[in-house]
Write a structure and sequence with these properties.
CATH architecture of the largest domain: Up-down Bundle
Number of helices: 6
CATH class of the largest domain: Mainly Alpha
Distance between the termini: 39 Å
Radius of gyration: 18 Å
Number of domains: 2
Shape: elongated
Strand content: under 5%
CATH topology of the largest domain: Four Helix Bundle (Hemerythrin (Met), subunit A)
Number of strands: 0
Structural class: mainly alpha
Largest sheet: none
Length: 158
């Protein structure tokens, strides 16, 4: 029975890494990583992904601002879509920080443990504020808080 679990786990991780055939709910659970710990990490890519999310949030706030002076149905529809987009990308950042970095990459044994916790928590707070507000300042502050983490997670040499 024990070996069966390992086979299922291996197949699940393989399918997820290839982006194949898992139901959406399962994908969301393992998207931030498997928490086994398997030892397969790409911190730099996660930072880049969060920066892309932040750029999308900045674009969303700009589009919301541009459309906010219009009251036609199409503009209101687009505003709704941009708000949803901003919310989704903000939540992606919160999930990545909490489910990946804070649970797996920040260790109490690190000399700068407290500093790392404060900076990572700062990203979560900035993402929350970006969700709550429709101005570019909060979105830009979010991107800057993510950039502040980049020194911890440089691109791996190949």
């Amino acid at each position: 029975m024990k070996s069966y679990r390992y086979v299922v786990l291996f197949l699940t991780c393989t399918l997820v890494s290839l982006g194949l055939g898992l139901p959406q709910g399962i994908y969301q659970v393992v998207h931030a990583h498997c928490q086994i710990p398997c030892g397969i990490y790409d911190d730099y890519s996660r930072i880049q992904s969060m920066l892309e999310d932040a750029d999308t949030i900045i674009k969303s706030t700009k589009s919301i601002e541009e459309l906010s002076g219009h009251s036609d149905a199409q503009s209101l529809n687009q505003i709704s879509r941009w708000v949803t987009n901003k919310e989704t990308h903000s939540q992606n950042i919160i999930s990545t920080i909490s489910d990946y970095f804070m649970t797996q990459r920040i260790k109490p044994t690190q000399e700068d443990y407290t500093e790392r916790l404060v900076k990572h928590h700062g990203v979560i707070l900035a993402a929350m504020k970006a969700k709550q507000n429709a101005d570019k300042e909060h979105a830009t502050a979010l991107k800057q808080s993510i950039e502040a983490l980049a020194t911890y997670y440089p691109e791996a040499e190949k």
